[in-house]
Amino acid sequence: MPESWKDKLKSQLEKDYYKSLNSFYCQELKSGHTIYPPTNQIFTAFYHCPFDKVSVVIVGQDPYHGPKQAHGMAFSVQKGVPPPPSLQNMFKELTEDPKLEFKRPNHGCLTRWADQGVLLLNTCLTVRSGQANSHQGRGWEKFTDAVISELNKNHKGLVFLLWGKPAEKKCQSVDQKKHFVLKTTHPSPLSAHRGFLGCRHFSQCNDLLAKMGKPTIDWQI
Description:
Number of helices: 8
Mean pLDDT: 97
CATH class: Alpha Beta
Oligomer: single chain
Number of domains: 1
CATH superfamily: Uracil-DNA glycosylase-like domain
Order of helices and strands: HHEHEHHEEHEHEH
């Protein structure tokens, strides 16, 4: 955990739920399970997006559970790994937004977004290989609730991009008098056509940032 975040979250690291989560994670590794992302990449999103630099929050659910995909940022995959369907739909939405000059990239690594202040936060930060949702209910949800709570409390004018009911529920405590919340369906192929495609969230986000006098996001990666 980088220092800018540890200062805000250190109390969480001392709580019983987090100690239990840590024990569970260590036991998973000792039992021989492959866990994604690798241990040294669990907090990648936090390293690339320091606490005081956050301007946009995108909430995901579970890390990708396939080989070499997850590397600690929601929706992002490492270079050399084909972008999964949800990310492909995100690129489709960006490409079709008339306010943006986005060219579909040949990779799915979203590090450049994070470096500009986009926190790509999954609800759970680890998962067992090939087993979606396998680390749900172990404590990560409480930890990421604390992340959102600290952002809500200590920032003003954040833009939350919430795609799907789980993301909306995750951020229901966000003060919409202080922050901006854009909601639509998840970019998954199962739901993208019911609201996500055509939502223009990426350009709306930049419009909001510009009105506040904040730097806009260059979505090109």
